[in-house]
Design a protein that fits this description.
By secondary structure, the protein is an alpha+beta fold. The chain contains two helices and eleven strands. Strand 8 and strand 9 form a beta hairpin. The radius of gyration is 15 Å and the shape is globular.
Amino acid sequence: MKRLMTNMIAAAALVAAAGIASAQTMEGKIPFAFRAGSREFPAGTYRVKLTTSNSGNSLIFITGAPAAKNLLAYTYRDGYAKTAWIDADRGVLVFRCAEERCTLSNVWMPGAGEQVFRVPAPAPRKDAPISVAEVVLRPIKAD
């Protein structure tokens, strides 16, 4: 726990030092329990912020209630957004689900251009059938 907190503080300091090029907070209701990074999250409403620093590093912040269920993770570029996402101008979280367990795999936010970002996560078993779920995010007022 102490190590996780140290890593989160270090990542936040890195973003602050590098300067933030873009950030937008959106909110989405996720109707199922899921995993993001190394954390487990219950179904619920979450705020999501994708931040790109001037140095090119991208981070995702996921916050919800209770405060213990927060995540700060590095992301990396992973392809291009669907035209429908761009046309709707709403953020999207993509989950890969296997064996009744869903893992956040990708995020796209308006303002990110066509770029989709991958959230690192453990791979599902190779023999498990995979389904994909998309959760649309809505804009909220700035914090």
